Q: What sequence folds into this?
């Protein structure tokens, strides 16, 4: 589904060059729910921005369903972003002037889909994520958890190959966070969605199938959820605690 191969990215500030991604390699399979974690500055957001082609990178390949996104022109990448990828951001990015139903419809409006097709798809997603009752409400009239569920529904509107989520629970209390992670789990189970999520939230990540831990611009380790969420959460906390504590027992 997604394959990142030998990815290198640096930023230049004045005369100084900072290597931020240094040979990043991993795969995400269809139907997988994968999180990326790691200390602040390890390159998680940069990685996400490279995958969505918002920033250029020096070297490497980013294959989505075997197509190298780095080889597409602006027009092609805009189409991939709207039709093949779904985005969920920390601050929701809903349009305040549109109600929940209209926000969910945006990706199909951009695609100029027929209204009836759009309406039935939106209704299905509103139902699935438990936000049907608030369809006519505006983003300022609903809770943070409901806003984020609306954003997840919107991200799925065009049946994307993959959802890219950047800190989707970052601004939420624990109850709302659980509701959002619940939405991802529903999307995975019922719609066979593939989800790739950058997060600092180890509880959220403990619901994933796999967690890619970054450190210093590299994949430090990949942890697999063997089925016991509590144990997986503990394993994540142990690895992250070790990294944040600066322990350099690594695989370099
Ligand atoms: N536009 C930029 N110009 C220069 N340096 C940048 C730029 N964006 C990020 N960086 C640097 O690249 C490194 C990685 O940043 P990035 O935002 O990808 O890390 P992160 O793992 O997402 O961090 P956080 O968890 O704090 O969000 C950091 O050292 C950061 O200061």
A:
């Amino acid at each position: 589904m997604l394959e990142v191969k030998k990815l290198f990215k640096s930023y230049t500030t004045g005369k100084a060059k900072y290597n931020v991604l240094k040979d990043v390699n991993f795969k995400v399979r269809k139907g997988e729910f994968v999180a990326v974690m790691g200390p602040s500055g390890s390159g998680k957001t940069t990685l996400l921005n490279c995958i969505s082609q918002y920033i250029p990178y020096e070297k490497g390949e980013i294959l989505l369903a075997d197509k190298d996104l780095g080889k597409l022109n602006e027009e092609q990448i805009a189409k991939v972003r709207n039709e093949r990828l779904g985005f969920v951001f920390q601050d929701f990015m809903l349009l305040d002037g549109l109600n929940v139903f209209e926000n969910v419809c945006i990706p199909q409006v951009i695609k100029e889909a027929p209204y009836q097709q759009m309406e039935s798809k939106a209704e299905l997603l509103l139902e699935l994520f438990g936000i049907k009752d608030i369809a006519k409400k505006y983003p300022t009239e609903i809770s943070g958890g409901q806003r984020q569920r609306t954003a997840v529904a919107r991200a799925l509107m065009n049946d994307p190959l993959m959802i890219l989520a950047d800190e989707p629970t970052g601004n939420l209390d624990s109850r709302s966070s659980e509701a959002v992670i619940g939405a991802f789990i529903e999307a995975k189970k019922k719609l066979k969605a593939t989800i790739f999520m950058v997060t600092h939230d180890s509880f959220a990540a403990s619901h994933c199938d796999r967690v890619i831990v970054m450190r210093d611009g590299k994949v430090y380790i990949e942890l697999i959820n063997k089925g016991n969420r509590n144990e997986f959460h503990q394993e994540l906390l142990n690895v992250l605690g070790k990294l944040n504590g600066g322990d350099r027992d690594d695989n370099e």
Residues 174-191 form the longest helix (18 residues). The two ends are 27 Å apart (CA to CA).
